[in-house]
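In response to the reviewer comment on reproducibility (Comment 2.3), we provide here a single inverse folding case reported in full, input and output, so that an independent group could reproduce the run without further information from us. The structure tokens appear first.
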């Protein structure tokens, strides 16, 4: 058996690192960074090597499984599809279209087949009860993008390779590998920024790995980033630091911004956020004294109560300082397969609201914070059946205990997933797709947030056997069986959809894209296949106002929904002025952890326990806690027990627990994950506390209490935590 070398792009996170994979027969011999990759140039993180762990995982499901009491039985694909068709159609006939719920998790976005076929499938189902993992951390950013630029996927991307000043709030790019900022070797790019005399500044309640690399780091009280940003904008107008000449002709609301931010001086906000007024002023001065600067915020500002306001202000600061659509500022990619343009019909929001609480749809999805109540609350439109796709909301969504109850009482659940995990254990049928090294890959989603306009195509490393199905095949078959309408027209449509395989769709998208048939590049899928290390179409280029998707091709800084939301800030200030002894809980990311779904890889979870409570020694001393001992953390809705870890890397008054753990529920089959179970932080978070405009989950700034666990409870809690 001869050895083979394959080149592909890692699809486990946003970095898009090129991989060189050596195989022999059906075995992986080695995975390493592809030094010839046009984008990553050999960079790789531990997750990339773990692709082979997914491929070889004995717990990975490969064939349809049906629940039989408390056990599972293998069935044929024909049996599985027949049952799903019968059951879901019966539920829809009895209760109505909205009785079907649909949830797509994060891995679905990283799978080309799912991404290419999911949107039409979701539309075909016709239900308004659609949910996705991005409503847990991304809706504020998408909402603001849609209102300001006309499309939820119009993300301003930091041009790190040419900037001189990078200000990051609530972001840890060295660990996230960049987020809404797809680039390999983010550490190398930040060090290059510093080497050419630039400055990297981090504002975060924790001295993260990124903060330790930064030139400056400032602690900030969780949930108050909005006040820092309001003070930043206030100073811009107060000191007339605006540089809006380039954008003034297509930007509205500049004067209104002046009026909206006038009340929020740094002297007012400083004692509330924990950063001195003089420091705030100096940051603004340094930022504006730099020709090319970036203000960037990510997950940490998205998952707080004022996430939409934060992202609005971040975008506005970049616009007002002349750092939008400019080299070294924030720019808009022009990907080879222009996903933004292709899906401009999806760039809508606020077309309907959730049944129970009236929270809005954004980009066709309701916030996941309403999912449980939509299952549990009787009445017309109640969710009676769920289709989950590559998602594990029972670990990732707030108030996981309530969500567990909601899933347990569904009349039917279909899971498209490769694992029997905390969510899919409630399913009646699991339809596992091919994955990891068995699927083709093209990053049409992540290229809309990439730092360069690049394109790579990855062919499957291994073939699938006759009893396996690709994700797109499963989705398409379900669509054929569940979509309703004129039989003749639907038959023609489905034959066309079946003919349009992922390869044909990618080829068509490339042909019609900016580097395709009507350009000098003549890009095609075959051309990418002939260039296995990818093609680089250069750095980001100015694109406004042409690239705007607003009806009038203008940016609106002061759109009504955000102006209305700003009225909540006086209440925030009042709350902050009232002293509280409560500790504030924030999340924590780890380079080896990819939400919950990579915890069954031994190489990614080995080593010391990473699911701990991080606490400042001064806070621990007040509570007479011992390092490494078990503590009880309680919030308004629940409590968990885990080991405490002391560090002065976290701000006094703040504690931190990582997201995505808690693999201790009965009925799962993820043996490695169960050995490193950890605890589920979402037993402490409430689905009732949300970002007001979008309903996005609030996972940071949760008031908690921490107590020592009695000696007689230590052993049991330790065993539970794994």
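Designed residues, in position order:
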């Amino acid at each position: 058996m001869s050895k083979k070398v394959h080149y592909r792009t890692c699809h486990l996170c946003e970095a898009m690192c090129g991989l060189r994979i050596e195989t022999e027969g059906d075995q992986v011999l080695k995975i390493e960074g592809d030094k010839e990759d046009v984008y990553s140039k050999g960079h790789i993180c531990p997750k990339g090597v773990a692709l082979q762990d997914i491929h070889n995982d004995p717990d990975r499901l490969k064939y349809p499984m049906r629940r039989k009491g408390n056990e599972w039985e293998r069935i044929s694909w024909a049996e599985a599809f027949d049952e799903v068709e019968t059951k879901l159609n019966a539920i829809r006939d009895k209760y109505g279209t909205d009785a079907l719920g649909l949830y797509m998790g994060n891995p679905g976005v990283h799978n080309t087949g799912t991404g290419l076929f999911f949107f039409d499938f979701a539309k075909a189902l016709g239900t308004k009860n659609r949910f996705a993992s991005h409503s847990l951390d991304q809706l504020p950013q998408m909402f603001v993008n849609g209102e300001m630029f006309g499309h939820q996927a119009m993300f301003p991307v930091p041009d790190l390779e040419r900037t001189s000043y990078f200000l990051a709030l609530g972001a840890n790019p060295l660990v996230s590998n960049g987020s809404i900022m797809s680039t390999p070797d983010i550490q190398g790019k930040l060090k290059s920024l510093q080497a050419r005399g630039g400055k990297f500044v981090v504002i975060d309640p924790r001295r993260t790995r990124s903060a330790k690399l930064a030139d400056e780091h400032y602690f900030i009280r969780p949930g108050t980033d909005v006040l820092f940003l309001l003070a930043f904008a206030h100073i811009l107008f107060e000191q007339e630091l605006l540089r809006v000449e380039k954008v003034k002709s297509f930007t509205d609301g500049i004067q209104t911004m002046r009026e909206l931010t006038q009340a929020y001086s740094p002297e007012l906000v400083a004692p509330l956020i924990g950063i001195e007024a003089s420091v705030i002023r100096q940051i603004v001065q340094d930022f504006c004294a730099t020709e090319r600067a970036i203000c960037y915020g990510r997950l940490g500002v998205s998952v707080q109560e004022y996430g939409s306001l934060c992202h609005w202000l971040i975008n506005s600061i970049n616009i007002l300082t002349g750092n939008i659509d400019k080299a070294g500022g924030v720019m808009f990619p022009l990907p080879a397969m222009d996903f933004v343009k292709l899906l401009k019909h999806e760039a809508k929001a606020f077309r309907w609201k959730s049944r129970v609480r009236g929270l809005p749809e954004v980009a066709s999805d309701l916030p996941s914070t309403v999912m449980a109540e939509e299952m549990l609350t009787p009445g017309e439109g109640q969710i009676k059946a769920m289709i989950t796709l590559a998602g594990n909301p029972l670990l990732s969504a707030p108030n996981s205990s309530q969500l567990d109850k909601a899933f347990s009482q569904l009349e039917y659940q279909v899971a498209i997933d490769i694992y029997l995990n905390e969510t899919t254990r409630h399913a009646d049928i699991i339809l596992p797709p091919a994955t990891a090294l068995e699927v083709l890959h093209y990053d049409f989603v992540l290229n809309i947030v990439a730092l360069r306009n690049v394109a790579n195509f990855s062919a499957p490393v291994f073939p699938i056997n006759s009893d396996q199905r690709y994700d797109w095949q499963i989705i398409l078959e379900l669509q054929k069986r569940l979509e309703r309408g004129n039989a003749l027209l639907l038959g023609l449509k489905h034959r066309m959809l079946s003919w349009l395989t992922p390869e044909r769709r990618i080829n068509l998208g490339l042909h019609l894209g900016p580097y395709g048939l009507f350009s000098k590049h003549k890009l095609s899928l075959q051309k990418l296949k002939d260039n296995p290390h990818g093609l680089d179409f250069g750095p980001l280029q100015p694109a406004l106002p042409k690239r705007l998707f607003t009806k009038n091709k203008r940016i609106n800084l002061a759109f009504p929904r955000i102006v209305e939301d700003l009225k909540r800030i006086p209440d925030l200030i009042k709350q902050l002025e009232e002293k509280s002894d409560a500790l504030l809980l924030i999340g924590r990311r780890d380079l080896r952890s990819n939400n919950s779904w990579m915890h069954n890889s031994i190489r990614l979870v080995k080593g010391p326990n990473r699911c701990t409570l991080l606490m400042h020694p001064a806070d621990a001393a007040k509570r007479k806690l011992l390092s490494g001992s078990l503590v009880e953390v309680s919030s308004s809705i629940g409590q968990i027990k885990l080991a405490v870890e002391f560090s002065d890397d976290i701000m006094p008054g703040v504690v931190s627990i990582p997201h995505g753990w808690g693999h201790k529920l009965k009925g799962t089959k993820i043996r490695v994950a169960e050995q490193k179970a950890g605890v589920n932080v979402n037993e402490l978070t409430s689905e009732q506390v949300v970002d007001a405009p979008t309903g996005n989950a609030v996972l940071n700034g949760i008031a908690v209490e921490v107590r020592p666990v009695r000696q007689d409870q230590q052993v049991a809690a330790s065993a539970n935590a794994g």
